[in-house]
Specification:
- With about 375 residues, the protein is an alpha/beta fold.
- It has two domains: about 150 residues, NAD(P)-binding Rossmann-like Domain (Rossmann fold), CATH 3.40.50; about 200 residues, Dihydrodipicolinate Reductase, domain 2 (2-Layer Sandwich).
- The protein contains eleven helices and 17 strands.
- The strands form three sheets. A nine-stranded mixed β-sheet has the order 16-15-14-13-7-12-11-8-17. The chain has a six-stranded parallel β-sheet with strand order 3-2-1-4-5-6, with helices on both faces.
- β2, α2 and β3 form a beta-alpha-beta unit.
- It starts with a strand and ends in a 5-residue tail after the last strand.
Amino acid sequence: MTERFRFGVVGTRFWGEGFHIPGLASREDIELVALCGRDAAHAQSVADKFNIPRVYGDWREMLAREKLDGVSITTPNHLHHPITLAALDAGLHVICEKPLALNAAQAREMLTRATARRRKHLVMFDYRAMPAARRAKELIDTGFVGRVYHVLAIYQHGSYVDPARAFAWRMSKAESGSGTLGDLASHIIDLTRWWVGEFARVSGQLTTFTRERLHPVTQDKVTVDADDAASFVAEMAAPPGAQAVFHATKMAIGRGNLMRVEIYGSEGALVFDADAGQRANWIGSLYGARRGEKEIRALEIGPRLSAGFETPDHARSLASAFRGMTDPFFAAIRAGADALDVPSNFADGLAAQQVIDAVARAAESGKWEQVKSQI
């Protein structure tokens, strides 16, 4: 009989209801026993939908009352740090949405606490689960690209184009830490680290195009202080001297959720393309060329990696992505393995946050800023 882990979820909106909760509910080794959300009526409706027996309005009460093995955190970013520390102190394993924290200091404390408590930890950089992304990793690791010269990465979204869109927590530095930089660019930062290596230094620009929006309830004008768009250049530490250019925006008319990363090296080129907002499944596309070839061509991903994703049902494809992210996490719990053996763990979250922080410093100083070492 499969060992089952008792889990609670904090956060019921968007990615909680659309990814974490159905993903956990689809696993035979998980018993979802508790849900916490600020909107009581909505939280209860989500609990009813997924047969979760108990609902809380305060995460502290949930952690105190429930006998849990772990918790999944899908709240606004400013709550990641306190909830994670409390969960770790209660002896729980933690799955946390990205970005891991508001800043690197918080992320480092979360990693240090998880290590001290010997708990397993996972940051949901979920594009790592895309079959095209996994195939790109395999090809890079076996020398398809050779020594990397250039990385060009974009993440384009059109969700903030309308100036009449209401104010939301991601538009506030106090709640998000960084706007589009942390929300979208963190994904292409993480993929680049995963595929290519660490960052050495960055120079960047953050822009807020719409500086006032209406509060969704009071209709008062609220100042927007988080970025709508982020662009930066980077020099990579490994391989040394490789150049990288990044651009993330929520001001791109006609774009739903487009991500594209191009990598050029001494032996070949790879192009990863993901437009998850416009496609039914989460497979993604991959293109490449080897030295001597004059055109980029489509590369086969294959059923070994795409099994479970080849479906017109977006929810089923997302469930496969969630399983791809969480299988190593739960396997590590069962085996008692080192938490750092879990792909996309808190150390990865910290490293991505250090790049985010360096870009924010560079945007403020107008100078190149060093990316501090990971640990």
